Amino acid sequence: MTSIQINDGGDAISPADDSVCVAAAGAWPFVSRRVYKLAGEVESIWTSRQHRKSLGPRRAASSLATWVFNPQSLNWWIGCIFAIGSSLFAAGSLLTLVPQLAKASGLEANINAIFFAGSIPFTTAAWLQLFQAANAGRSPNQSRKLFGWRPHDVGWLSCALQFAGTILFNINTFDGMIPGLNWFQSGLAVWTPNILGSLLFFASGYLAWIETCHAHWSFQPREIAWWIVAINLLGCISFLLSAFWGISLPTTPEDWPTISVAFTLAGAICFLIGALLMLPEAEQSTSEPATVVAITA
């Protein structure tokens, strides 16, 4: 008989002083999963995502009520705030693609402001994730860090790149509200931060993917975390394609702006779905030790 203990995100190095790491996995050069041998024949499994988000074992029964309202969980707040930002980006994209809808709602002159408004929740949620990752495994006598510095931690690095990307989206969407920009000014003030922010988002999404998969590719359809990072990665790819087709040049084809906005809408929908999936995952948030489950060897 062997016991497997799922680490709830305690110590970042090992779950116990007398433990020995017997296996490690992750996409090079990162380690996102470790197996520790404890006293007797007990093994403790540590994963990077569970550690940085303080997630315990998946519960056998879940409640829709806690998905909808779980304010004691930081993960729930992150999911809700990301959902707000994604919804605003989707709304702005839809109003751009359907001018009749924008005219009927009286929002024709405010579409760029809607995109800027959506970028604020993105930045807020991204910082909360970075703050969470920077303080993962913090002992009670350690002070909290606003940003931290853990470049060898795949989860922290993903959050840091995402936060930097959202700052660039703040600049991009704010500059988009400036009237009368010529093609060069638009390319410098709007497109440049857009493409750089999208590249950072893509890098962040891929790091979150390998953090969860422990490899460059994995198929785990029974794991909600896998669906979250997979759908978010699709959103990152859509935003990157949107930025590519959003370039401002005198020779830019007339249909490119429409293609760009369509990819923005697709990305926003992906991010909205990913954010909503974070709500049931947030139900696993815990500060208590995980349960040891006995299984047959």
UniProtKB/TrEMBL annotation:
Q: Does the keyword Membrane apply?
A: yes
What keywords were assigned to this record? Membrane, Transmembrane, Transmembrane helix
Lineage: superkingdom: Bacteria
Q: Which residues cross the membrane?
A: 76-99, 111-133, 154-171, 191-212, 224-247, 259-279
Statement: the UniProt record of this protein carries the keyword Transmembrane: yes
**What's the name of the protein?**
YrhK domain-containing protein
The organism encoding this protein is Rosistilla oblonga
